[in-house]
């Protein structure tokens, strides 16, 4: 890997570490780091340790997961507009979690921790398989992908609407807040659950970075170069669905991280997935951490759902991408 790219990745990692340290001090209640280290106020230390720190770390994990899922989808479909939210994968996961919320099932404590993620995984996987199969029908055209995504989003949105209609007041409020995307329910247990799924998934995707590079040449060329195309595609689809499912189950629907971040990283570091994959993870974590810090400080003591903020920032970027591609093909 070129030295420039390595230096860029290390610089991004350093910026992320500094932002993480700063973010733990910002919020409705300011928690200066020097005050925490002095140990003079145990109540503030407990707030920092049990509320603020898990939320900051969860933002890193969720942001990295969503950005990496978008990176994998864009690489598989060879399309910079492929995104878990736009293609309906997030909606599939959201529909499955909504079903879990409205129709709860009593399970042992450990299974209850992972049950929302399992249901989200099944929903995300179903949407991913449908998109992938349909995209193979006609040369992976952009219009076909977006139309399929619109249809899946509409169908899953209608299903969530029906489930909201039959839910009770507590379930309805939970679904409403969760649908806008928030990290307000962060706990060490949820952080542990998401991290235990993310880390092995990231390692699997990293090991397939070279194969993903060869897939950019086309399936036939990749096959001749020694890539087992079908196996690699299935593994990457499963991994991306798992990343989206873990994120949606914990934080709700947070849009545009998977669209904006991988595209920016490709513009900055090039198209080599050995650089794009770690760059997307770091930049996705950085972007969501900034968005969540802004969401809990801009309107303090109230809190803005972080999913609304990322959508406000991401929608103009999406429009710019569409018009830019239209201008290139015009």
Automatic annotation (TrEMBL):
Q: Which UniProt keywords are given for this protein, alphabetically ordered?
A: Cell membrane, Membrane, Transmembrane, Transmembrane helix, Transport
| Coiled-coil regions listed | none
Would the keyword Lipid biosynthesis be found if you checked this record's keyword annotation?
no
Localized where?
A: Cell membrane
Q: InterPro entries given for it?
A: ABC_BtuC-like (IPR037294), ABC_transptr_permease_BtuC (IPR000522)
SUPFAM superfamilies in UniProt: ABC transporter involved in vitamin B12 uptake, BtuC
> Pfam families, per this entry?
FecCD (PF01032)
Q: Which CDD domains match?
A: TM_ABC_iron-siderophores_like
Transmembrane spans: 52-73, 85-107, 113-134, 146-166, 186-215, 235-261, 306-323
Q: How does it sit in the membrane?
A: Multi-pass membrane protein
Major place of residence: membrane
Q: Which family does it belong to?
A: Belongs to the binding-protein-dependent transport system permease family. FecCD subfamily.
Q: Supply the name of the protein.
A: Iron ABC transporter permease
**Organism for this UniProt entry:** Leclercia barmai
Q: What is the lineage of its organism?
A: Bacteria, Pseudomonadati, Pseudomonadota, Gammaproteobacteria, Enterobacterales
């Amino acid at each position: 890997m070129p030295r420039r790219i390595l230096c860029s990745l290390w610089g991004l990692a350093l910026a992320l570490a500094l932002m993480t340290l700063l973010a733990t001090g910002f919020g409705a209640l300011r928690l200066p780091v020097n005050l925490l280290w002095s140990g003079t106020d145990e109540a503030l230390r407990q707030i920092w340790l049990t509320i603020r720190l898990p939320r900051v770390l969860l933002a890193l994990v969720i942001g990295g997961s969503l950005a990496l899922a978008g990176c994998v989808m864009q690489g598989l479909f060879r399309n910079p507009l492929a995104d878990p939210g736009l293609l309906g994968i997030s909606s599939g996961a959201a529909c499955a979690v909504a079903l879990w919320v409205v129709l709860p099932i009593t399970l042992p404590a450990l299974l209850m921790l992972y049950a929302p993620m399992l249901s989200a995984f099944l929903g995300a996987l179903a949407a991913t398989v449908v998109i992938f199969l349909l995209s193979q029908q006609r040369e992976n055209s952009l219009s076909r992908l977006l139309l399929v995504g619109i249809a899946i989003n509409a169908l899953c949105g209608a299903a969530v609407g029906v489930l909201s209609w039959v839910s009770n007041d507590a379930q309805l409020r939970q679904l409403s807040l969760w649908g806008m995307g928030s990290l307000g329910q962060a706990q060490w247990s949820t952080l542990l659950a998401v991290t235990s799924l993310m880390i092995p998934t990231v390692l699997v995707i990293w090991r397939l970075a070279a194969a993903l590079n060869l897939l950019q040449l086309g399936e036939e060329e990749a096959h001749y170069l020694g890539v087992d195309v079908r196996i690699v595609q299935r593994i990457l689809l499963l991994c991306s669905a798992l990343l989206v499912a873990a994120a949606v189950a914990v934080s709700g629907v947070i849009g545009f991280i998977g669209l904006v971040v991988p595209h920016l990283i490709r513009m900055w570091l090039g198209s080599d997935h050995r650089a794009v994959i770690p760059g997307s993870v770091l930049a996705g974590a950085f972007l969501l951490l900034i968005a969540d810090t802004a969401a809990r400080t801009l309107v303090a003591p109230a809190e803005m759902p972080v999913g609304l903020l990322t959508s406000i920032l991401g929608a103009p970027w999406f429009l710019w991408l569409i018009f830019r591609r239209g201008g290139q093909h015009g």
